[in-house]
Structures are given as C-alpha cells and as structure tokens.
C-alpha cells in the first residue's frame, strides 16, 4: 500500500437524521439468497444480514447510491470514523489539517466515486472530507508504523485442478495488526447503477477503500503489494481506485486486460484478475506491464515472478507464501472446490500455508485481515474477516434484481 504523508485530528461527529426504515429483523430470506435476511431500507437501497456480516444493495445514480450507503451504514460509519480519528488525535493533528487532507485525497478520483462520497455525506452525518479520510482509514492507521513490507496474496485454479473445471479465485488481504480493529465494520456493498454500467460488489470495512471487487459479468480484481519502490514521475490517479472504473465498465477478460494495460499506475502493483474463462496476474511497474498465467493455476504474493525484471531474490516471507500456495494446490489437484480452497487459504504461515495468523514479522504482528473465495461462473462468494467465520453469499440475485 502506498502511504502518503497525511495529517489528522479528532473531528466531532454530528449530522441530521437520515430517512432510514429500520423494521425488526426479518426471518424471511431475500429472493434467491437463503443466506440473507432483510434488515432495513433507505430510498432504493436495502440492508441485509449474512451471518456476522451486513450486506447493502444500492440502486440508482452514483450520488443516490452514496446517499443509501450513508443512511444504511450510518452507525458503523460514525463509530469507525470516531475510532480512527480518536487514534490519530493523540498524535496532535488539527481539525483543519485533517479536512484539508481529505480534500486533497479526492483530487484525481473518478467523478462516479466522488458522487458516491457526496451522497454519503448527505445522509451519514460526516462531511465529504471526513468520508475521504475514512476511505483511507487503513493507510492512515499505518502512518505510525514502518512502511508495509507485506500485503496480500492471490491464488486461482481451474481446469484439471478443480473438481468441475470451473475457475475458483481467492485472495488474502494482509496487513499489520494495527488495522485489526477495523474488522468489526466489514460490509459487502453491491452497487447497481441505473446508467447501464455493470453491477459491482466490494468487500471492505465500511467506507474504507476496497481492494477486492467482483462484478455482474463474473469478473474479479484484487491487488498485492509488489514489494518494490516505484513511484510515477508525475501525478497520476490512484490505481486501486481505478478498480471501480474497471468493474463498472468492463464485461470480459479481454476488455479488462486492455484497461489494466492501458492505465499507468501511480506506484508499482501486482494485480490479480479472474473471470469465467481464466485467471491472470499482472506485474505492473509505472512504465511496464507483464501478464502471466499458468496451466490451471496461478498465484502471487509480494514479489514479481517474471525473470525478465532482473530483480533481486524475493524476501522469504513472500517466497514461502507463494510456494506454499502452489504446494497445497498441487496436493489437492483435481479435487479443489470452494470448501477445499477455503481450507487451503486457512492454513497459517507457520503451518506451511499463506495466511498470516497474528504472525510475528519484522517486530510486528500481521494478519490476513480478510479473505475471499469467488467462483466467477456462478457469482458465488465466500468472505471472512480475521478471527471470524466464512460466509457464503450468492451475488447473482443481488446483481440482477
């Protein structure tokens, strides 16, 4: 993750009441999604509960979807924001510094994302600047820590690796345990824009920048820290926020490939994608992009694999996680389904896997803050947050209804 120099302070949380309908929790499942229970509505948006996790389904213009988000998640957004700025206020930042940085954050953001922020500010009780600060919550929380040396891994299998040949994609979002408190506020957000764009689902703490996306065409995109220092020579849009554009606009792997190749990142990244027809990893520097795949399997951790980069040997933490994912997959070759993929993903680093389980590294503890398993063909998703259970969610009915 790129860590900007930012300044913050405690801000008072206030706002007007939003138009939120909060009936008693219904025991009636949502149409076609037996794991979802209806909770509340606001305008054209709805909130459900899937096990431990809230699910919000938003419909309309981007501003309207932002309004629904702010209303449906208002308690969590304010609680999460209060926690974030409470930890930062002790560092002596002023209110004006915080909100000024919030204004700077959105300078190069796509208009659609900015419209979502505007809508959220109208119903959440937070200002647009506050929403922008919360969007970078994990990054802000890590400001007091050394630069993040490890972050995330990817594994996708298909063909003769899976029980039925279907693509199964997975990712771990790994960070310093300083970010662990945010696992309390995870939400699956489904955007259903009425402008003809694809429906998009994201998995992240409420209001925080998502790094795991799925869309209604069965495409998946996520990222891994590249383990290199490679800053663009000029200002560029933040690459991870461009994932919104990729998912709203692209409907197949060929178009997504063109979008990724044609977008110069602000820093070096590893980009993971999957769809019903395959899976790929992109090793992106600010001036070059290489794509790789495999014979039924592709994986990534926090180093570039392609030898043409001529980079030094990768750090052990990345090399071992990458190799562990390949080893565990080969042991299960021909029988991997979603359940087995979750078992592979749940093996801790100390036991020969790739999951950080409050693992001691560089003098700090690291964890797989969230995990995802996704089947593009059926749009079936399994999610969890660290120390919490896996939950299945059928995305197709949420995308289509």
From TrEMBL:
InterPro entries in UniProt: C45_proenzyme-like (IPR047794), DCD1A/B-like (IPR047803)
Transmembrane regions listed in the UniProt entry: none
Q: Which PANTHER family match?
A: PEPTIDASE C45 HYDROLASE DOMAIN-CONTAINING PROTEIN, PROTEIN DCD1B
Q: Know the name of this protein? A: Acyl-coenzyme A:6-aminopenicillanic acid acyl-transferase
Q: Which organism is it from?
A: Methanoregula formicica (strain DSM 22288 / NBRC 105244 / SMSP)
